[in-house]
Amino acid sequence: MIMKDARTIEIVDTTLRDGEQSPSIVFSAQDKLNIAKALDKAGVTWIEAGVPVMGEEEQEAMKMILSAGLKANVIAWNRALKNDILSSVSCGFSQLHISVPVSDLHIEQKLKKSREWVLENLKQSILLAQSFGCMVSVGAEDASRGDREYFLQVANIAAELGAVRIRYADTVGCLNPLAVHSIFQELIPRCPLPVEVHMHNDFGLANANTLVALAAGAELASTTIGGIGERAGNAALEEVVTAWQVVYGMKCHVNRTDLPHLGHLVMQAGSKDVFDYKPIIGNAFTDAHANKIA
């Protein structure tokens, strides 16, 4: 039952970007268009459609999605690099997500750069995207292993430049629900932007971590259909939405009756089987069962 004073959260679905990084899953351009249309029909607010800088084949699929006249906001994912931004703009995108690393592990060991370099690169990337009239959201990669104060510094700079939200990413899936509650209880009151939560499932905690973050004040959840994604996957759209609405009694614009179809569509496109025991979209979760959920 939905509570009288229930909070409403929005879904940022990344099935077509992070989800396609799942081992052995490759979507055709038509698959991607069909999935995007199904997500739109289900009421998903934001669809992260891919990474234009990856090349012409990726861009062709993304152009098809942009031309489909969807109600959902369609986003291109970018690193804070000039070529990424220009590729997204030339592909026709007006809504860009720009991701930067915020942990010293990624900044110093992976990129061999400094915190100052990341901040300057982010500023220039946001300004470049805005010079083409684009809306920008910012991603804080590997935030769960980073300094919370640095995350807030990134958020403050993004807010000052007009970004619409910031993504807190548990890139390696190392958090647990108790840690998530503590982190978000501290960050949410101090963050100048709405926070989107992006959890990976390396220890099977992506759904729980996402729900705890939402309960602590995050306003958007990054998900994939069936929880597909890099390594062990991501938070599952259907499980997060159903738990948020049924268990927490809160609101989300996604229509739960569309979830089983979404699951089967993605699994068929990715040549994967839906296991009988999979919550919400599994074969054991019949229409009759679904109709019994309050």
Question: Low-confidence segments, ≥5 residues, pLDDT <50?
Answer: 288-292
What is the tally of helical segments?
Answer: 11
* Strand content range: 15-25%
Mean pLDDT: 92
Please give the CATH architecture: Alpha-Beta Barrel
Q: Tell me, what's the shape?
A: globular
CATH class: Alpha Beta
Question: How far apart are the termini?
Answer: 6 Å
Description:
The chain has helices at residues 29-42, 56-66, 82-91, 104-110, 115-131, 148-160, 177-190, 206-215, 237-247, 259-269, 287-292; strands spanning 8-13, 46-50, 73-79, 95-101, 135-141, 166-170, 195-199, 220-223, 251-252. It has 294 residues and is α/β, with parallel strands linked by helices. The chain has a single domain (8-293), classed as TIM Barrel (Alpha-Beta Barrel), CATH 3.20.20. The chain has an 8-stranded parallel barrel with strand order 1-2-3-4-5-6-7-8, surrounded by 8 helices. Helix 8 links the parallel strand 7 (195-199) and strand 8. Helix 5 (115-131) packs parallel to helix 6 (148-160) and helix 7 (177-190) packs parallel to helix 8 (206-215). It is globular, with a radius of gyration of 18 Å. The protein starts with 7 loop residues before the first strand and ends with a helix.
